[in-house]
Write a structure and sequence with these properties.
- The chain has a four-stranded antiparallel sheet, with no helix packed on it.
- With 95 residues, it is mainly beta.
- The protein starts with 10 loop residues before the first strand and ends in a 38-residue tail after the last strand.
- It has a domain of 66 residues: Roll (SH3 type barrels).
- A hairpin with a 5-residue loop joins strand 3 and strand 4.
- Helix content is 0%, strand content 22%.
- It contains no helices and four strands.
């Protein structure tokens, strides 16, 4: 299982694109479920100057300019598995 570097609410900045211009600051809305392909962790992000959400890979985020509220795990410390991204207790099913 991959360890996510960021959590919901963290402020991030994307790496500069081919034009050399970096995207503005954005806020992580949620962490997407792991893909079966084993690629980088994906995040749902909303940027300040946009009114829609984007899906961004962890490898597209500039770690030196981004602010993470998550503390890195200490050596030898196991991380508890996170709950699923769907809360089954909040669903109502008609019978």
């Amino acid at each position: 299982m991959a360890r996510n570097r960021y959590i919901a609410g963290d402020r991030i900045v994307l790496k500069a694109g081919p034009s050399g211009q970096a995207q503005g600051e954005g806020r992580i809305i949620s962490v997407q479920p792991e893909s079966q392909s084993g690629g980088p962790t994906r995040y749902r992000v909303r940027f300040n100057e946009e009114n829609f959400d984007r899906t961004v890979g962890e490898d597209d985020i500039d770690a030196s300019l981004s602010i993470s509220g998550k503390q890195p795990p200490k050596a030898g410390e196991e991380r508890k598995p996170a709950s699923g991204w769907i809360n089954l207790n909040s669903m109502k099913i008609k019978k």
